[in-house]
Amino acid sequence: MSDQEEDQDLQQLFPFVKKWKTLYAFVLGELVVLIVLFYLFSHAFS
After folding, report:
1. Exposure string (b/e) for 12-43, b if CB count within 10 Å is 16 or more?
2. Other C-beta atoms within 10 Å of 4: how many?
3. Contact, 10 vs 22, CB < 8 A?
């Protein structure tokens, strides 16, 4: 399967994402935000 076919498959699953790198960046960014939020909550209630 070529990169272009994989990108088309990805667009069928997630129409707002054009490439796999964009999806990976979004997921990593979301994880960073969650880690920071958990840290802030645990620090606030300790």
Report:
1. eeeeebeeeeeeeeeeeeeeeeeeeeeeeeee
2. 8
3. no
pTM: 0.71
| Distance separating alpha carbons of residues 30 and 24, to the nearest angstrom | 10
Q: What is the pLDDT of residues 1-46, one digit of tens each?
A: 677 787 787 778 777 778 888 889 999 999 999 999 999 999 999 8
Longest CA–CA separation in the chain, Å: 51
| Burial class of residue 10, CB neighbours in 10 A (0-12, 13-18, 19+) | middle
Token pair of 22 as six digits = 């964009």
